[in-house]
Structures are given as C-alpha cells and as structure tokens.
Amino acid sequence: MSNKLYLITDFYDSSQNTTGYLFGKLYEFLSKQKDIDLTLLTKIDEKVLNQPEALYVKGINFDKKRLVSRSSYELLIGFSFFKNCAKHIKKDDIVFTSTTPILLLIIIHLLKKLIGFKWVLLVHDVFPENLIPAKIIKNNNLGYKLLKRVFDDVYAGADRIIVIGRDMESLVYRKTNHNHITVIPSWIDESDIALQSKSDNSILNELDWQSNRKVVFQFFGNIGRVQGISKLMQAIKLMKRIDEAQFIFIGDGVYVDELKSLIRESNNQNIVYYGPVSQDKKSLGLNACDISIVTLADGMLGLGVPSKAYYSMAADKLIFTIMDKSSETYRMVQENNIGWAVETDDIVAIAEMLDKAVADIRIKEFNSPRKVLVDKYSSELAMNKILDIIRSL
C-alpha cells in the first residue's frame, strides 16, 4: 500500500515566484513515484494552471510592503489551511511543508500532536530570527523572546528538517537540537534557464549597454530589507574603476524607493534600476550582465540562502557575493572558483573587490558556474535526497 503524502504550500507554480518554482518541481517529481500517493494542498491562483486533483484554499491579495496587510493575509490563509488539514490528513500520513505561510507552521505543529502524522519541514526562512536583520523587531523585545520560544518548539516538532545551506544547518540545530537535519540546496533545473550572449540581450540593447566593453554587474530579484543594498551602493561610490563598470538592478521589493533615491544621489548614468521582469522572462533578466551580485545584510548568517545564486549559475554567470564568510553562498563561490566573495562589514573592502572583479574577468580563469551547478547542485540530486527522506518515514 502506498504512503499518503500531502505537499502543502501557498505557491505551487513557477510563474508565481521562487517558492512556486521549487514546489512545482517537487510536485512534478513526487507525482511520478509509484509508491507515493501524493496530494497537493495549496492556495488557489486564478492566473495559473490548476492541478485537477489538488485541494485548494482561498487566499487574498496583500501588499508585501505593509506589515498590517501581510499579517491579515497570514491569519486568513492560516485559518483556511487549518480547516483543510484537519479535514483530510489522517494518522500516519506524511506532510511536507515549507516555512511559509508562517502561521501554517503552528497549525501543522498542533495538528501533528492531535492526529499523529509525520512531518517533513523544508526551512527557507528561520522565524522569528529573520525579523532582527530586517529591523522589524529587536532581540531584547519581550514579544520577540516569546515568539522565539514558541517557534523553537514548532521547528523542533518536525520529524525531519531540510535546510538549504550549511550555515542554516548550524543555526537550526542550535534552535532545535534536532538530530535529523539534512542540507539540500535549492533545486534549480539548468534547462529552465536559457543561455544568451550580452549582444543578444534585449534589456542591455534597450540600455545601449551591449556595444561597449564595460563590465556589467547585475542585482536580480527581491530588493528587500535584508539584501544590504545601501552598503553596496556606498561601495560603488568608492570604486576606482567605476568608469569601466555598469550596474543594473532588476526586481521589486520594499527597498525599491530607497534604491531609486540612492541612484539619483549617485548621479551616475552607469547605475540603473530597470524594474521587475515577469517570471517567464527570468532568463532574459538573468542574462543581462557579466557578473551577478548576490548579497545578504549583516546578521543574516544562517537565516537564508539566496536562490538567486543558483539561478545565476544556471545562466552561467560569475557570482559576486557580499555576505558573512561562513555563509553557504560565500563558501560555495570560493570552493568552486566561480567568482568573488567579500564580507559585509567593510565598505572599502567591497569597493576594492568590485575593482578586482572588473580586472579579473578579463584575465583570470574561472570554472563554469553552470557546470558546477549541474555537477554539484543539480535538481536531480536534490529530488532524490528528498525522496529518500520521505521514504525513510
């Protein structure tokens, strides 16, 4: 008799966001396993193709830039998930969730005690610790201490925990003292990202940046509170080889207005905020550069691993990473010779490394980021590791 597995997520399609991409890939893979009886429980989205056999809950649109709006969304979507989980999940079933929506974690934790199912938790964000570097709350706040106590217990309640980086593994172990934590990097399929030369890229053509020999740096993805954009902009101002470089920011997020202001203050025509691109144009955006910038702000060690790094590797772009030297991305770049790595705490050092990248890219030998992705971080490797964990339960 096959095992009953519930894949529970608020996003499930690659056109939605990165979470949708990852869970869409996972659903596609797991649905092919004959020994697993798979059910997708997710939030309905009228804009994407629905899975006919899935269970859907109603969601609402919300403004990511407003905490009140986001909190209301969490409450409503959490209640909808609770009703469906309580109705369908039975004893000895297996439940696979990520760490969003955040209220879902408490719901699964409580229902697990009542029903007796097995739980696999994929950790993309460590809550509430991630609120500190985002400057939403302070670590000496009583509310934070209460949240941490609750969610330490919630995370520890999972039967198996999957984390996406070695730094996150260390943090989650300290948080939970859990003996079954597995590191599985984000599963990006390189075949989903097309390769394209700078001369053929319509974004660079639009900016008239394809015809010169300047090195194009690109920031792609969420422009949020924890990306350290301010320090990056300060470092760009200090570059000695700034006339040989261009910087393009592609994406959206709560920090966009601040970024636009910093760009205006720089009065540099070689620094541009392009705006977001749709998910179906992800390859176009990722290819609009020579070097991909991947950053995390101070205090983010162990709290997240930017999936953007793997997407950029799929586009065969060298990585310029700014983050703690113990972080997963920093270590990956150095271990595989696919770019440059510098810590976040020294703006002068960041500027000097940017200058070095401008010089290095023309003379230094690097490994192919796309080949490193295929050899060490392929979606096939990740999927089979997840399957082994599910089958172990």
Please tell me about this protein's structure.
The chain has two domains: about 5-185 and about 380-390, Glycogen Phosphorylase B (Rossmann fold, 3-Layer(aba) Sandwich), CATH 3.40.50; about 190-375, Rossmann fold (3-Layer(aba) Sandwich). The protein is built from 14 helices and 13 strands. A seven-stranded parallel sheet has the order 3-2-1-4-5-6-7, sandwiched between helices. It is α/β, with parallel strands linked by helices and about 400 residues long. Helix content is about 40%, strand content about 15%.
Task: Please name the defining characteristics of this protein.
393 residues, alpha/beta, Rossmann fold, 2 domains, seven-stranded parallel β-sheet, 14 helices
Instruction: Name the strands of the widest sheet in spatial order.
Output: 3-2-1-4-5-6-7
Which architecture of the largest domain per CATH? 3-Layer(aba) Sandwich
The level 1 CATH classification of the largest domain is Alpha Beta
By CATH, the superfamily of the largest domain comes out as: Glycogen Phosphorylase B
Count of individual helical segments:
14
What oligomeric arrangement do these chains adopt? single chain
Order of helices and strands: EHEEHEHEHEHEHEHEHEHEHEHEHHH
Low-confidence stretches: none
Count the beta strands. Answer: 13
CATH topology of the largest domain: Rossmann fold
Q: Supply the number of structural domains.
A: 2
The Cα radius of gyration reads 21 Å
How would you concisely characterize the structure shown here?
With 393 residues, the protein is α/β, with parallel strands linked by helices. The chain is 41% helix and 17% strand. It folds into two domains: 3-187 and 378-392, Rossmann fold (3-Layer(aba) Sandwich), CATH 3.40.50.2000; 191-375, Glycogen Phosphorylase B (Rossmann fold), CATH 3.40.50.2000.
